[in-house]
Write a structure and sequence with these properties.
The chain is α+β, with helices and mostly antiparallel strands. It is 32% helix and 21% strand.
């Protein structure tokens, strides 16, 4: 019994807990990663600067740069325009001008405007998406069916995506505002049961689908359409009928683009920025050069690379300091960013092995810009924990917990 008692006492001594060790902050855990950088500024002064000048893959935080370039070019109140014309055969042509937000409800307005012009019949709908180059290769875009891989075209309905429901072999539209067109029905027949959103994958198919949706909208509005859709360039001699101005201004487009990380809208704006009014065709190289020229004038950066406007490409390179430069210029428009609680406005970026976050944290009534780039596999929740620490910790410097910052 004595030996057993001594063993029990020793065991108790061994397992007795010592003082609780404070867990390292999310900031310290992030800064301990070999492929991570962070910059936080307060009234123009760096508070935390860790590898702040290292060029890294920004993923979708690239959309902040694209959004800022769009605001500087057009202004938040800008509304994109699309021209409708009639040729000598009575066909109604739509000349795509790069409006990225021609959703079903917008085509309703377009069709009603045509009927309001006194038009009661057209010999089919023609779709001209020639403003963007026919072989437009967006860096980082894959050929998957996922909506985020939709082809970027100068004329598109619903971001070149379809929302389709298949049940017992029957295909229907999964949204009441969008009619089921022949193209949607054909693509839906190849899908399994359930509701799915897919992309059209092909530039020419996107233009045809636009013409099909507008055809259905015209019929609903009381305009008879007597021939099949056609895709091509507007014939010489076609007469302008009306100019449709989108009901959404740029601010109304940018907020959901940033919240839902819409690649189609971001790269559509990226290409549209290169529009010189010469009718195109706009290539990705021209868009890249246009962005580079603007960056050189606006920021004067040295070491960076912008290959697309959505952040799809792994060839993109921005540093945390460059992201903070963008955020300082973006400050008047920060409410366009998604919210994380009451104290954080920020945009995420995600690719395989890439987790980024950039925006503002509110401390003592001051919105402080931060840029966080992690280019290695990591818990995707870490970036938001970092932002929460930045917003709520009593001392920012103490967050580093011995890590260099």
């Amino acid at each position: 019994p004595l030996i057993q008692a001594l063993v029990t006492v020793c065991a108790l001594v061994v397992v007795a807990p010592g003082p609780a060790r404070a867990e390292a902050s999310a900031v310290a855990r992030a800064l301990a990663l070999p492929q991570a950088s962070l910059l936080v500024e307060d009234t123009g002064r760096p508070v935390i600067a860790h590898r702040a000048d290292r060029p890294m893959v920004p993923a979708s935080t690239m959309k902040l740069l694209t959004a800022l370039a769009g605001i500087k070019r057009w202004g938040l109140d800008h509304r994109f325009e699309t021209t409708l014309l009639r040729d000598g055969e009575g066909r109604l042509w739509v000349r795509g001008a790069g409006d990225p937000y021609l959703v079903s409800e917008e085509l309703d307005l377009m069709a009603k405007a045509v009927r309001g012009m006194g038009v009661t019949s057209v010999a089919g709908v023609g779709a001209d998406d020639g403003l963007f180059a026919p072989t437009l290769d967006i860096p980082g875009r894959s050929a998957s069916d996922n909506p985020y891989d939709a082809p970027v075209t100068a004329l598109a309905a619903n971001f070149n995506t379809l929302n389709i429901k298949v049940k017992a072999g029957t295909v229907t539209s999964a949204e009441p505002q969008t009619p089921l067109t022949p193209t949607a029905r054909r693509l839906g027949q190849a899908l399994g049961s359930g509701t799915q959103r897919i992309n059209l994958k092909d530039k020419g198919l996107g233009a045809r689908y636009f013409a099909e949706v507008l055809t259905a909208k015209l019929e609903t509005a009381g305009v008879k359409v007597t021939a099949e859709p056609r895709v091509g360039r507007v014939p010489a001699g076609a007469k302008p009928l009306l100019t449709h101005k989108n009901s959404r201004d740029l601010r109304t487009m940018l907020a959901p683009m940033l919240e839902y990380s819409n690649n189609f809208v971001a790269n559509g704006l990226f290409l549209k920025l290169a529009d010189r009014g010469d009718g195109g065709p706009i290539t990705i190289a021209r868009a890249q050069q246009t962005m580079a020229n603007w960056i050189d004038k606006e920021f004067g950066w040295g070491d960076y690379r912008v290959e697309d406007g959505a952040g799809l490409s792994r060839g993109n390179r921005l540093s945390a300091r460059q992201l903070v430069d963008v955020l300082k210029a973006f400050a008047p428009y920060r409410n366009l960013l998604p919210r994380q609680g009451d104290l954080i406005l920020a945009k995420t970026g995600t690719l395989t092995g890439v987790s980024t976050y950039a925006g503002y944290v509110n401390r003592d009534g001051r919105w402080m810009p931060f840029g966080l780039l992690i280019n290695q596999p990591v818990d995707p929740g870490l970036r938001k924990q970092v932002a929460a620490d930045l917003a709520r910790a009593p001392s920012l410097r103490a967050l580093c917990s011995g890590a260099p910052c």
